## 1
Amino acid sequence: MTGTVDPDARQMARFVVIYDTPSDIEAFERHYNDVHIPLAKQYPGLRRFTRSHEPAAVIGEPCHMVVMLDWDDMASLEAALKSEIGRRTAEDAAENLARYATFRGMVLQLDEI
């Protein structure tokens, strides 16, 4: 059946962050690796943390890095973002990473079909 979603299919949630090319790549990467990743890996319920440097742009402008964080469901993702570690991670991004690069994030509900 085309266009139908299995009601018993597993739904996951993903937080995606796209970082533009930093003004100082070395400083950005150092802070990201030494401070930001250790914070983000403390998100409650986080199942997987992946990233891709300099992904090939097929449509639109290229970027420096794409980061993907996965949870079992949307409720778990939302709870993690609202948690104390979620607030600390967001503050770190706003105060430290934003000085080197613009970035944008989105929350996705993934339906396994």
## 2
Amino acid sequence: MDRNIGNVDKAIRITIGLVLIALVFVGPQSPWGWIGVPVILIAVFGWCPLYKILGISTCKRCKE
């Protein structure tokens, strides 16, 4: 698996993931907030399967 997520993309995904997970504990307390877990995992590993399918890469230092 080649990395295809850049640093800015990673930061945005982690922020969105944390906000989604916070929805489980604060606010509407919806179980839909657990969608944030795979979002954070994708950011941590630096590889997005949808980006791979679409041929997108936001990682400037990475080569495919």
